[in-house]
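User: Teach me something about this protein's shape.
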Amino acid sequence: MSSLVIFVTLAFSGLSTIAFIIAVVLVLSYKKKVTLLETKLVSSLKKNMEISSFVNFFSEKLCSYSTSETIYTSIAEKIAALIDAESVCIYNLHENKYFIPVGYTEAFPPLNISKDFILSKPRFLTDALKQEKIELGEGIIGKVGLSKKAVLLGNNASTLLSSEKSLAVITSLMAVPMLINEQIVGVICAINSKTTSQFTESQFTMFDAVAKLVSIIHQIIQAFSIAAKQDRLNQEIEFTRLLQTSLIPKEFPIWKPFEIHAFTRSAKEVNGDFYDFVKIDDNRLLVVLGDASGKGIPACMMMTMARSFIRANSQRFTNLSNLMSELNSNLYRDTNEGRYATIACCLLNKQEETVEFTRAGHTELMVYSSKQKVRRLRPHGTALGLLPNEFTGNFDSISFCFKPYYTMLMFSDGIIESLNNRGDEFGVDNLQKIFYESCCKKNSPSKSTDRILRAVDEFSGDKEQSDDQTIVIIGHEKSFI
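Assistant: First, the predicted structure itself:
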């Protein structure tokens, strides 16, 4: 700038016409540079404004609680408008193996279809695009994904795309990788410029800049998607938990001379164990304790199926063996392979003061008698739902008089399989010892339950509960006098 001032001064001093001419040239050159800088500044500002508008547009979409498919499609439409492209498609990498379209404008055709399509209506093209899977390294999309390098195809697009089985005439194409920490997560493709015969470097630069933003947006969408799925899962779990809680009896039946107490606690959000009391008639009450295989929602669903069947059908069976056989047939037919349930049933007859006990793969029944000892009753019976009836055999039952001072303990295997920090199990012998001591002290079913649970918790220490735990204790009313 100082040289310009000197030349202008000399010129106006009349010292040199040449100096004046040089000064004019310098001024014109300076003005040209200023104009060029102004153009670049305006272009940069316009680009920044467009990108800022794009980010704001995405934020509004995200806040509208749209689905990820809707958001990706809206982004594809916005990109097409920004770069003046006929159509745009966003491909996400799935399982690190192949690309699938997740958002696209209506005009975008399948680039590599596996079969010939005769119909070319837009909705048929869209259907074909939705089914498209492009292997990593296959076609222009797969190659961009594999190389992680953007491509701009102009007049040679048709030649380079000759191997692609596209359903549209492509005169120009841009494809840019979506990268997160240098890892490929997707590819964005634009075809055919609206304003020119082929895409310009300016359009390509804008496209590449926007693609970097979409890579970040992809991360945000994935995070929101995971959070939304977790939220839906939490809602489903809470609904299942509330449903299950509503099915567990809140009160224990008064069925003299029997006194009943029960307790259950789950290892997960929902319980695979259950207990229930089903009134058969004025004299008979069926006490059921069940344990579905596994934990969580699948176990809870199987438990609900077993409970519903027993409640709906218990009155039409003359003995427990037939009830178990029919329940096994239903569970085997309606559950997935490998799923099963174990059941223990005590049929209490208050008029005759008798008990009939049967089990299907469940833990034994412990009976404390007036002779101050505990017996374990183990009638034969396989778990329900594993095998058809022709392979299960009969479900045996044991009947006995329920005398004064008798107390019975039904329990799930979560009690005896409770672990301590050394990996030792609480065990059935330990349970029998605690139960025996409690009965000797003439504890009520409620106090005996508390005593057993405290012993289990003290044994386990800070070891996390690994299985659902359920206890049902039935005592003769004269046992606690």
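Now, about its shape. The first helix runs from residue 2 to 12. The longest strand covers residues 183-193. If you'd like, I can walk through any region in more detail.
User: That's plenty for now, thanks!
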